[in-house]
Amino acid sequence: MTSTLLKAVSVREEEISAVLLATAYGFCILLSYYILRPVRDEISSADRGNLQILWTVVFLVMVFVAVPLYSAVVSRFSRGVFIPLANRFFAANLLIFFAALYLLPEGARPWIDRVFYVWTSVFALFVVTVFWGFVVDLFATEQGKRVFGFIAVGSSLGGIAGSFVTATMAEIVPPFVLLLIAVVPLEVAAWFAIILHRRSGLASAATRAEESEPVRGTAWSGMKVVFQSSYLSLILLFIVLMTFASTVLYYQQADLIRDAFPVDRAARTAFYAKIDLAVNLITIFTQALVVARIIRMIGIGLSLAMIPLLAMVGFFSLGVYPLLVVLVVFQVVYRAGRYSIARPSREVLYTVVGREERYKSKAFIDAGGYRGGDLVSAWLYTGLAALGLSVGAIALAAVPAAALWAGTGLILGRMQEKRAVDGGAEGEVATASGG
User: Fold this and answer.
1) Residue 344 lies inside a defined structural domain of this protein
2) N or C: which end of the chain has fewer CB within 10 A?
């Protein structure tokens, strides 16, 4: 197995243990998420009229509750404690939702759905953010360019498995059974995180001692650092623009799928799961064969700009032909590109910042960028629709934003390369010594 991995992936022998453990951890996290994602997305079609309100609540919960609470935990405990703790907290929440769906009357279902939608949006961002923050903490810039693509393959395999579970079972079992199934990989992921923290084998003794300590700063310090750093602020802008494009596409998807399946909620859930399955199949093919080569050949900047350029073409096509089939093709290719190319490239950006930025600032950037972008974009989309703009017209309006997104990616790539050469603004390229 080691020999095969050394031949197939740009990984060194001393890195194999950490790479495989990180890959397995990512598999479990995405397995759990993709069991739940179609359930959440079906709610967006069933409760389409309130979607912008739900996203407003998501933003408020993320910025004023989840991020400060998470940062406080990070300040108090080492990563070997707070990462498993985060996974088990969300697993316990799933058990509570299971009990509510099973025990409460059917009349409570719309409100349980809304709370679950908000919770899943927080869950999706935090478990993935914590996972990649951990991975970035383990590998330096040079290592990240070689191994992040392979680690992301494990996440995509988990996405495929989770999508397959939901696509197969959504029309057979009640949704609360899917919630119960999703608990298992979360607990397994907690154990992988513990083992990876203890046995990564990448860091020096001094670095391991630092990693055993809580991350410095207060619950709010990670937010403050973002606005003091032009580099982190630009990452925040990149994510806001990405979120705008994704939100427009998400709302158009909710509208067109609701029209295609006006009554059958189980069929909608299964259809969403099939889209997720197609996304993850393409993603893993791309990750396994081309991602590491693309990043090394064209650099971080062009890698970050590829998906925005694809979004420009996709939105123009959807503007001209606002059909469900065009949307599904665009959605599948766009999301596959985001997960396989843009995500590993974006995580490399964090290999040239300090540990507080990797955990606290990154959590705030993801929360503020994703959910703040969701909030603004959702109300903007609702306003444009209220003015009478069609799906196609709104798609065409998104093209200039995608162009600005591409330009931001190119600038970030140049800044990252300069920081890697200079040793980072804080003089710390990464905690791992293997790069």
Assistant:
1) yes
2) N
Which residues contact residue 55 at a Cβ distance below 8 angstroms, ignoring those fewer than 6 apart? 121, 371, 374, 375, 378
Q: Are the beta carbons of 143 and 435 closer than 8 angstroms?
A: yes
How far apart CA 48 and CA 50 sit, in angstroms, is: 5
Q: What is the 3-state secondary structure (H, E, C) of the chain?
A: CHHHHHHHCCCCHHHHHHHHHHHHHHHHHHHHHHHHHHHHHHHHHHCHHHHHHHHHHHHHHHHHHHHHHHHHHHHHCCHHHHHHHHHHHHHHHHHHHHHHHHHCCHHHHHHHHHHHHHHHHHHHHHHHHHHHHHHHHHCCHHHHHHHHHHHHHHHHHHHHHHHHHHHHHCCCCCHHHHHHHHHHHHHHHHHHHHHHHHHCCCCCHHHHHHHCCCCCCCCCHHHHHHHHCHHHHHHHHHHHHHHHHHHHHHHHHHHHHHHHCCCCHHHHHHHHHHHHHHHHHHHHHHHHHHHHHHHHHHHHHHHHHHHHHHHHHHHHHHHHCCCHHHHHHHHHHHHHHHHHHHHHHHHHHHHHCCHHHHHHHHHHHHHHHHHHHHHHHHHHHHHHHHCCCCHHHHHHHCHHHHHHHHHHHHHHHHHHHHHHHHCCCCCCCCCCCCC
433, part of any domain: no
| Structural domain includes residue 434 | no
18: its two tokens: 């950490």
Measure the CA–CA gap between 37 and 253, rounded to whole angstroms: 14
pTM of the shown model: 0.69
Looking at residue 93, what is its pLDDT?
96
If you search the block for the tokens 């719309």, which residue do you land on?
110
Determine the Cα–Cα distance for residues 392 and 248; give it in Å rounded to an integer. Answer: 11
| Ordered mean pLDDT values, 10 residues apiece, the chain (435 residues) | 62 80 93 92 81 86 81 79 89 95 89 93 83 82 76 86 90 85 95 84 45 51 76 92 92 86 83 89 76 79 93 94 91 89 84 72 75 85 90 92 96 91 50 31
Contact 42, 269 (CB under 8 A): yes
- pLDDT for the residue 420: 85
Residue 435 lies in a domain: no
Domain that holds residue 254: 14-422
AA identity, residue 69: L
- The CATH number assigned to the domain holding 362 equals 1.20.1250.20
Domain count within the chain: 1
Which two structure tokens, joined as six digits, stand for 220? 């709010």
